[in-house]
Design brief:
663 residues, mainly alpha, Rossmann fold, 2 domains, two-stranded antiparallel sheet, 10 strands
Length: 663
């Protein structure tokens, strides 16, 4: 992704330019046609190795020739090379925001701000473990890898300066000092990547700490090649081996591969092998392809090509509501190439070769970052004005469906609450108070509402489909009618058998341990009533472990009841309402289409447990509208808004026969 280094002590290496072409083509094909190149994401790892090689090599030459590293001059070169094109694409994405539904606007602006400050990778790492995160295809998401590189550009020279000073006092050469610190950081980062990837693949994928070794690998190669020449035969072998390694990873890996970890060694070592093969004169070497005019051109435009392709893909999907096919995929690539060429010639080249003084360059760069960041913050301040707790203002919500005079088709789509642009923030208070357990932990957390001395003590167990009902019990708790405690964990089925968890790419052992801890907790607490609410998305194979867990509660003599799952839409409610001209048809799916085959309810029937069915509060005989009683029902495809969930307090009071009179 980083471009050609035009440093006084550095010359263009054609094989590296050709390797850039391979890297960017891998990423592009993966993003446009993932079925063709399911592991094409390894192109990013190839870029990391290239950046580590070029930057470390440049800094080493500067240290050897000048005896020091001029950090400000280095930063100025990076700013001139990278920031203008990045700012251009960020601005284009900002202008495209109206193409997206209003509910997605805050996520896009957050992405722009995170990219402007080069922390996009950490922003996405946080989302990767956040069960609420819905911005999986944001138009700025690809900036995560640029953020990793920018953090490397910022901190690497800051690390090397004191290392060089220490090395001089110890009588060591710059090359030896570079080699030791690169090896130390690389080994530590690789070990951490191998450790973290199976435990927390989301964070491991985006974190700088788990990717630093890939840059260090390139840096170590620069240090080694600075004083060692390889034989022509070895170069030829390394070139072919490198191509085979990258090709193997691109074709054999997929989204289920635990990555980076050990798996990232294959493409990164392949990239290192190709770099080491540079200079081979054999007509049968891979240099024949890498040095071709096409690959040199693609390598030269790879940075702009990487910047432009992803926003174009995301915007295309948003407009057409489908993934690219063959013909439209080709058009996307051509459009990306055209924009890349223009920005390369008229933005990258002009700024890179400008004669701005170091101080002025840094000031302008800081100004661009600040302007982009403030744009995002300013927008969020404006759009956040309607956020926070929403008063019901006399609206009926769920109870409206029981009124024979009520017709949901008469709802005004311009007046419901929360508004589409604020719906993602309309979540239960459990996420702010952190009483809903995250995926990586297994301790029992409790969300408590009401009076501990109340005569009715209720416990609810489940995943986020329990958590989204908590606002109803929070309302009942305010009335003093109950003492409610919620025990919920993200994406976790209350079960005594571990099941495979796709995000972790392994068995969800944290969920099993949590379930055992919940049982031990219930043995101590002995509530009057236990409610179980789970997502209907778990496979039938999980039924046995779930049944065993329920039987343990029944054997304790607890009153166990199951809540039927809420509807599961085929679209995001806020997106539909923002785009539709006839919401009562487009955004009110048929009742028979939105209730999944519910393993939880089916198991409850077999075990003769009482099932609480709230479907009549969410649907009429035929359809399930997304606006009821002036309130937007869903915050995504299957979770209720907190505002609507509050109005279900009346339903639970009725269904559970809760006495609201004073205790």
């Amino acid at each position: 992704m980083s471009g050609v280094m035009h440093h006084p002590h550095h010359h263009i290496i054609k094989e590296v330019q050709g390797l850039r072409a391979i890297a960017v083509l891998s990423v592009l094909i993966y993003h446009v046609w993932p079925e063709i190149l399911p592991g094409g994401y390894v192109g990013v790892d190839v870029f990391f190795v290239i950046s580590g090689f070029l930057i470390t090599g440049s800094l080493l030459k500067e240290a050897e020739v000048e005896g020091r590293i001029n950090i400000l001059r280095f930063y100025a070169r990076r700013i001139r090379r990278l920031l203008p094109a990045a700012a251009l694409v960020s601005g284009a994405v900002a202008l495209s925001i109206p193409v997206f539904p209003k509910g997605q606007w805050p996520d896009i602006v957050n992405g722009i701000a995170a990219s402007a400050t080069y922390v996009q990778n950490w922003y996405l790492a946080a989302q990767a473990v956040d069960y609420l995160a819905g911005n999986t295809n944001g138009p700025m998401n690809h900036f995560w890898s640029l953020s990793v590189e920018e953090q490397y550009y910022i901190f690497w020279p800051l690390i090397l300066v004191p290392v060089l000073a220490t090395a001089r006092k110890a009588g060591l050469t710059s090359r030896v000092a570079f080699g030791w610190v690169t090896a130390f950081i690389g080994a530590g980062s690789l070990a951490y990547s191998v450790f973290l990837t199976p435990l927390d693949p989301g964070t491991a994928y985006f974190a700088t700490t788990t990717r630093a070794w890939e840059l260090a690998l390139g840096g170590g190669l620069a240090v080694y090649l600075a004083r060692n020449a390889l034989s022509p035969a070895l170069r030829e072998i390394l070139g072919f081996a490198g191509i085979v390694g990258i090709a193997f990873a691109s074709l054999a890996y997929n989204d289920s591969t635990q990555f980076p970890g050990y798996a990232a060694l294959v493409p990164t070592l392949g990239a290192a092998a190709i770099i080491a093969s540079s200079g081979s004169q054999s007509p049968w070497s891979v240099q024949t392809i890498l040095n071709s005019r096409l690959f040199q051109y693609l390598g030269d435009t790879s940075y702009s090509l990487y910047l432009w392709h992803w926003p174009i893909i995301v915007i295309y999907r948003e407009i057409t509501d489908r993934a690219p096919g063959l013909a439209d995929g080709v058009l996307i690539l051509l459009a990306s190439g055209g924009l890349a060429h223009v920005s390369k010639v008229y933005v990258e080249d002009r700024f890179r070769t400008s004669s701005f003084a170091v101080g002025k360059t840094i000031a302008v760069g800081a100004g661009c970052i600040a302007a982009t960041f403030l744009l995002g913050i300013g927008y969020l301040s404006w759009s956040d004005q309607a956020r926070g707790p929403v008063a019901l203002n006399g609206r009926l919500g769920a109870m409206a469906m029981l009124d024979p005079q009520y017709n949901w088709r008469d709802e005004d789509p311009s007046k419901f609450i929360p508004r589409p642009e604020n719906v993602k923030a309309d979540v239960p208070s459990v996420y702010a108070t952190k009483c809903h357990q995250e995926q990586r932990r297994s301790e029992v957390l409790t969300c408590m509402y009401g009076d501990p001395t109340a005569k009715t003590k209720i416990v609810m167990i489940g995943d986020s489909h329990a958590g989204h009902l908590y606002p109803a019990f929070e309302e009942l708790g305010r009335e003093g009618a109950i003492y409610f405690r919620g025990l919920s964990k993200s994406a976790c089925l209350f079960s005594l058998e571990a099941f495979y968890h796709q995000p972790f790419k392994r068995d969800y052992t944290e969920c099993l341990e949590w379930s055992k801890n919940v049982i031990a907790w219930l043995e101590r607490e002995r509530p009057d009533l236990v409610l179980i609410s789970q997502s209907p998305a778990y496979p039938e194979s999980t039924g046995k472990g779930m049944t065993e867990a329920w039987l343990r509660l029944i054997e304790m003599g607890l009153d166990v009841r199951v809540i039927r799952s809420t509807p599961w839409l085929r679209f995001d409610a806020d997106k539909c309402l923002s785009a539709s001209k006839n919401w009562s048809v487009d955004c009110a799916p048929m009742r028979k289409d939105v209730f999944r085959q519910d393993l939880v309810s089916a198991t409850a029937d077999k075990m003769e447990l009482r099932v609480l069915d709230l479907s009549n509060y969410l649907c009429d005989a035929e359809r399930c509208p997304t606006v009821i009683g002036g309130i937007l029902v869903y915050r995504d495809r299957h979770h209720l808004t907190a505002t609507f969930a509050k109005t279900l307090s009346h339903a639970f009071r009725k269904e559970l026969s809760i006495d609201t009179r004073a205790n």
